[in-house]
């Protein structure tokens, strides 16, 4: 069988479980969408209230550069608020999609899900990411700025991970519901047979065979159409998960690239220090050579003086001696 990205069954995160982050009501896993105020992501969302993640009080450097940096911080905070609001909207739409009772209703909700997902992709890739990259180049070695930039990066990473978790839960729930619906059409099918069918639903021949095997053709077609629609949602979620993982890797690379710049600067500093030390050694050596040169010049000077004195003495002595004779 071809590659199956859903081999691991982690259960339905929308099922009625006390520990289920996607549960709507304990007694009805596919009930009406939960109120935003009761949504665990809305209540625990670190971006829902500006005050919950305000920047720590720091001494802001004066001048236009400092004001520009903190303006960029505020813009990114606003973008993160929008990003998390879109995740909340997407989560509500996904719960509604799981409650859909027909392929037509599901298709209508899917259009809204696609729109919300497109807005999320645009916000994360065209708004937040490039602005964050620019922020990393605006710190100028200021520790307070670097800390706030790191905080924004961590908030963005946490939001991406939350987005991935929400969408992965939706994928698992769609897969489980599609399996249940197939077993309604073919009650004799085992869970593994139903899951294999859902994984291969894109194959029209498999789809036609399932309809032929069903007792009530009209009902089977309607149910299998919905199964097919849910399978498309599963595939979309898998693709989105890959994109989010790539974005997380890009964020990690962003930090790594900054560290490379610092390491390169340190290497240049070490190289310059080594050159200075070698230069100092050369200066000392040249000074020693100069001292020795001056010493030998003085020695040579005095030797010449002595020799000249000796010669003069000898000449004078010879002249005096010749006169005496």
TrEMBL record:
Residue stretches spanning the membrane: 299-320
One of the GO biological process terms: vesicle fusion
Cellular compartment(s): Membrane
Family: Belongs to the syntaxin family.
Location, primary (coarse class): membrane
Chain residue ranges for the region called Disordered: 1-39
A Pfam family reported for this protein in Swiss-Prot or TrEMBL: SNARE
Full protein name: t-SNARE coiled-coil homology domain-containing protein
Residue span, T-SNARE coiled-coil homology domain: 224-286
GO cellular component assignments: endomembrane system; plasma membrane; SNARE complex
Single annotated GO MF: SNARE binding
SUPFAM superfamilies: t-snare proteins (SSF47661)
Coiled coil spans: none
Compositional bias (Polar residues): 1-11
Topology class, membrane: Single-pass type IV membrane protein
Superkingdom of source: Eukaryota
Organism: Pichia membranifaciens
SMART domains: SynN, t_SNARE
Keyword tags: Membrane, Transmembrane, Transmembrane helix
């Amino acid at each position: 069988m071809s590659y199956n990205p859903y081999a691991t069954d982690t259960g339905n995160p929308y099922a009625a479980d006390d520990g289920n982050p996607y549960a709507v009501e304990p007694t009805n896993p596919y009930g009406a969408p939960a109120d935003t105020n009761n949504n665990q992501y809305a209540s625990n969302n670190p971006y829902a209230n500006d005050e919950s993640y305000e920047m720590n009080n720091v001494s802001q450097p004066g001048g236009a550069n400092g004001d520009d940096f903190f303006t960029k911080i505020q813009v990114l905070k606003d973008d993160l608020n929008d990003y998390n609001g879109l995740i909340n909207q997407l989560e509500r739409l996904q719960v509604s999609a799981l409650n859909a009772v027909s392929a037509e209703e599901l298709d209508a909700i899917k259009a809204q899900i696609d729109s919300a997902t497109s807005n999320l992709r645009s916000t994360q890739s065209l708004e937040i990411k490039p602005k964050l990259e620019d922020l990393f180049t605006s710190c100028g070695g200021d520790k307070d700025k670097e800390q706030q930039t790191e905080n924004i990066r961590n908030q963005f990473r946490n939001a991406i991970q939350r987005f991935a978790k929400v969408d992965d839960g939706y994928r698992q729930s769609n897969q489980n519901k599609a399996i249940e619906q197939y077993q309604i059409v073919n009650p004799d099918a085992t869970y593994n047979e139903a899951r294999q069918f859902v994984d291969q639903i894109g194959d029209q021949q498999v789809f036609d065979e399932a309809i032929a095997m069903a007792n009530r053709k009209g009902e089977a077609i309607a149910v299998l159409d919905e199964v097919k629609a849910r399978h498309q949602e599963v595939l979309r979620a898998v693709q989105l998960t890959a994109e989010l993982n790539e974005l997380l890797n890009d964020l990690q690379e962003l930090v790594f690239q900054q560290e490379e710049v610092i390491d390169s600067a340190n290497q240049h500093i070490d190289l310059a220090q080594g050159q200075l030390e070698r230069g100092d050694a050369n200066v000392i050596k040249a000074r020693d050579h100069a001292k020795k040169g001056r010493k030998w010049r003085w020695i040579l000077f005095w030797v010449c003086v002595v020799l000249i004195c000796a010669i003069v003495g000898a000449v004078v002595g010879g002249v005096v001696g010749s006169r005496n004779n």
